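Researcher: Let's do a round of design. I'm pasting the structure tokens now; please hold your answer until I've finished.
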């Protein structure tokens, strides 16, 4: 996503909890002249405030917020899920987008225009995309998207969601496997597209939703899942 936004001419602040991965992202996306890397945990309020302050200090405005941070749960049945696991998943997946929006929106209101993209999931609509914590958190993201649209659409802020299915990222695919590994191939065997989504495909949708071409798109949830919600009934 960072690379795609840069390719579209944007200046991008990339937030993450791990400094070495942020540095890699900055380098791959064109260097510090176009990308500012910020170490921050989006579930921690003081981190969020400090990160947004850094962006405003450097560029003076925030035109687009893309809430893409997220974690998966253990897929265990609800009665086996610990409260710590529940809280960790909710913090990253639901509290993070809320805090980022909460402290970015005032700057967008001053500008009279802005956009927010929340990365939800097919698990925002159905079960089996994760365990109880993940599914509940992604339902929350979609609810937050709709509520923010209701509250701020008339004030110039567009809020939408992207809902990916099986996407070839390290969160979904263990480093010991590839999309063609037997377990991974089986995960999408009943998906109509018969393949995993590539991260670049999600990034292109984000670029569209963040552009003026999507100026009339408010409160929408764009499903990019290869048809999984339509046809599949098993967990990834």
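Researcher: That's everything. Go ahead.
Model: Designed sequence:
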């Amino acid at each position: 996503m960072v690379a795609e936004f840069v390719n579209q001419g944007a200046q991008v602040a990339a937030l993450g909890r791990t400094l070495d991965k942020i540095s890699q992202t900055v380098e791959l996306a064109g260097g510090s002249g176009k990308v500012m890397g910020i170490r921050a945990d989006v579930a921690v309020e003081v981190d969020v405030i400090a990160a947004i302050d850094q962006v405003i200090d450097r560029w003076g405005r925030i035109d687009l917020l893309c809430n893409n941070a997220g974690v998966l749960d253990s897929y265990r049945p609800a009665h086996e899920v610990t409260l710590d696991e529940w809280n960790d998943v909710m913090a990253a997946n639901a509290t993070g987008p809320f805090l980022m929006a909460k402290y970015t929106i005032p700057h967008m209101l001053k500008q009279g225009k802005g956009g927010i993209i929340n990365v939800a999931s097919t698990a925002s609509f159905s079960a089996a995309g994760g365990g109880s914590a993940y599914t509940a958190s992604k339902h929350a993201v979609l609810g937050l998207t709709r509520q923010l649209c209701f509250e701020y659409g008339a004030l110039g802020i567009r809020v939408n969601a992207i809902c990916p299915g099986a996407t070839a990222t390290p969160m979904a695919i263990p480093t010991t496997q590839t999309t063609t590994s037997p377990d991974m191939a089986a995960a999408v065997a009943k998906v109509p597209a018969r393949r995993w989504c590539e991260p670049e495909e999600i990034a292109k949708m984000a670029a569209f939703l963040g552009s003026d071409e999507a100026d009339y798109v408010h409160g929408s949830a764009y499903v990019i899942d290869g048809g999984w919600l339509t046809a599949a009934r098993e967990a990834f």
